[in-house]
Automatic annotation (TrEMBL):
Gene source species: Acinetobacter proteolyticus
SUPFAM superfamilies named among the record's database cross-references: Barstar-related
Record-annotated Barstar (barnase inhibitor) domain positions: 164-244
Protein name from the UniProt record: Barstar
PROSITE patterns for the chain: INTEIN_C_TER (PS50818)
Superkingdom, natural source: Bacteria
Length: 251
């Protein structure tokens, strides 16, 4: 992983990297994240020469990115999380303090970031097969869908157009399962067809977003099992959504 100290050019929407620092060991709570043993006297002198430690916390021209880049011979996936420019050092440790603006839950964002990092590692190392997502917790499934969205943004559109998919209701017990299953049937492991109802509708109706033919024929077998497990307040909504934006057949 890497910490990048950046200066923002808001007018041109460009970030200039002032300094980059490799990090590995860490711990965090509701107020701060500590990266252990990432500093040494040489690094501190270099950072002081750039006056990084003297910037005001309220200066919105500067910020920090924690980024993670992972790859195998076929694919590479990068992810990052942003912090305000509020940090200090103690001995060899870098300490980043969170900005409490009433909107962001940074501890939750870090939980999601590190879970995505773990899932990306498993995926790139071939540990995630078909329906891997089904055994994940709801929190992990949300992170799985986030990674699927990342991949979809980076990947070129597949020349192969999908006209029909079959969903197995024994793997659809929730809204998250539905998104994961449809995505996988369209794009394989970590395939993406939306992570909320609006995104799913867009993916079904716009063939420039995902490699599908409109209307996509969807066969939902073992539907009664899904109906029993699914949130009863939501199941009819998704049936209507799929019926209106695809050619849905239920068995």
């Amino acid at each position: 992983m890497k910490i990048e100290f950046v200066k923002h050019n808001h007018e041109n929407e460009i970030d200039t990297v002032l300094y980059s620092l490799n990090v590995n060991q860490y711990q965090y709570d509701q107020e701060k994240i500590i990266f252990h043993n990432c500093l040494n006297p040489k690094i501190i002198i270099e950072m002081e020469a750039l006056k990084l430690f003297t910037r005001t916390k309220k200066d919105y021209l500067f910020g920090l990115y924690l980024s993670c880049h992972q790859e195998n011979i076929h694919e590479k996936i990068s992810d990052q999380i942003y912090f305000s420019f509020d940090f200090a050092y103690q001995n060899n440790d870098l300490i980043i303090f969170y900005s409490f603006d009433g909107e962001a839950d940074t501890e939750l964002e870090l939980n999601e970031f590190f879970k995505r990092k773990e899932l990306i590692y498993k995926y790139l190392n071939g540990e995630c097969g078909q329906k891997y997502w089904f055994a994940l917790s709801d929190f992990e499934k949300k992170c799985w869908l986030d990674i699927a969205h990342l991949r979809a943004q980076l990947a070129q559109m597949d020349d192969h157009i999908v006209k029909e998919i079959i969903l197995d209701g024994t793997y659809i017990e929730s809204e998250l399962d539905l998104y994961c299953h449809i995505g996988e049937e369209i794009g394989g492991v970590l395939g993406y067809m939306g992570c909320n109802s609006a995104a799913l509708r867009d993916c079904l109706t716009d063939d420039e977003i995902r490699p599908t033919q409109y209307p996509l024929r969807i066969i939902w077998k073992n539907f009664e099992y899904s109906k029993q497990k699914f949130n009863q307040d939501h199941i009819q909504y998704f049936i209507d959504l799929l019926s209106q934006n695809a050619d849905l057949k239920i068995y």
